[in-house]
Amino acid sequence: TFNETYTDLGFDTPIVFQATCTQEQFDQYEKILKDTFTTYNEIFDQYNAYEGINNVYVLNQSAYDHAISVPQPMIDCINIAIKAGELDERFDISEGKVLTLWHDAREAETPYVPDKQDIEAAKQHEGISAIRIEGDTIQFTDPNLKLDLGGIAKGYTAGVCAQKLHEAGLDNGYIN
Q1: Residue of higher predicted confidence among 144 and 75
Q2: DSSP of the chain
Q3: Which region, left, alpha or beta, applies to residue 23 given φ > 0 means left and ψ of -120 to 50 means alpha?
Q4: Using one digit for the tens of pLDDT, what is the confidence trace for 22-40?
Q5: CB 100 within 8 A of CB 146
Q6: Among 56, 83, 96, 136, which is most buried by a count of CB atoms within 10 Å?
């Protein structure tokens, strides 16, 4: 049994991977894990742009102006997130402007609590109904909408990675 913790694969979180297999198999599985989490971190990153990829950051900057072609995993994850929001309205990926206020306040040199008026202003958007998905493109019908997939992207990525590992032959292991 091999057990590793990674702190450099993105999502601002440590990732623990355990597998019962040979060293050669583990090396193969580890590459799948690293590649998947690194790639998906770039897809779901709302704070940074990456060359050659239209990610959440790009959507939040430009999707009101025109439809943006995005990777299929983003479409899949957003569709799951929309269904989750329909089951419980408290899960709302369109609250990105509000969450960004809190992120910026937390990351500031001197952390602070965002102004209540700024929070109320950030809440003024149409919600997930303003997300238009057509084929491999996404467009927002509300200029104030900003996505935040932080509540689903890690779990979605872990699930995709687990499926890839299973297809590669891993039958006994876990990702945390």
Answers
A1: 75
A2: -EEEEESSSSTTS-EEEEE-S-HHHHHHHHHHHHHHHHHHHHHH-SS--BTTB--HHHHHHHTTTS-EE--HHHHHHHHHHHHHHHH-TT--TTBHHHHHHHHHHHHSSS--PPPHHHHHHHT-S-GGGGEEEETTEEEESSTT-B---TTTHHHHHHHHHHHHHHHTT--SEEE-
A3: alpha
A4: 999 999 999 999 999 999 9
A5: yes
A6: 56
User: How many alpha carbons lie under 13 Å from residue 27 in its C-beta half-sphere?
Assistant: 3
pLDDT at 128: 87
12 CB-contact burial (10 Å; exposed 0-12 / middle 13-18 / buried 19+):
exposed
Give me 160's structure tokens: 């995709």
**CA dist., res. 69 & res. 90, Å (int):** 28
Distances from the Cα of 157 to the Cαs of 91, 130, 162, 165, in angstroms? 18, 25, 8, 12
Structure tokens at 27: 């090396």
Whole-angstrom distance, CA of residue 118 vs CA of residue 105: 12
pLDDT band at 127 (very low <50, low <70, confident <90, very high): confident
Kindly give the pairing relationship between strand 15-19 and strand 2-6: antiparallel
Q: Which pLDDT tens digit goes with each residue over 43-65?
A: 999 999 999 999 999 999 999 98
80-105: average pLDDT: 89
